[in-house]
Amino acid sequence: MAVDGITVRALDRFELLVDGTPATPSAPKPRQILALLSLRCAETVTVETLVDELWGEHPPRGAVAALQTHVYELRKELQAVRARDFLLTRPHGYAVDLSPRHLDVTRFEHHLAAGAAALGQGDPTAARRHLADALRLSTGRPLANVVCGRTLANQVTLLEEARLRALELRVEADLQLDRYDEVIGELRVAVVEHPYHEGFVLQLMTALHRRGRRAEALAAYRALRGRLVRDLGVEPGGDLQRLHREVIRADGALRGIPLPGVPHHPRTHPPVELPPDIVDFTGRDAAVREATGQLLDKSTRGFPVVTIAGMPGVGKTATAVHLAHAVRDGFPDGQLYLCRTDRAAPLGPAEIAERLLRACGVSAAGQDPAAAFRGWCRGRRVLVVLDDVAPAEQLRAVLPGAAGCAAIVTSRTVCSVPDAYALTLWPMDPDEGTALLSRLLPRGRLEKEPAAAKGIIDAVGGLPLAVRHLATALAAAPARRLEAFLDSLTNALDHRPLSQVLTIGPRVHPRLDAAYRELSGPDQHAFRLLALVGATEFTTDDAARAFLLDPVGAEMALLRLADAHLVRPLSDDRYTVPTLLRRLALERLADLSRTVAGSGAMP
Question: Quick check: pTM over 0.85?
Answer without folding.
Answer: no
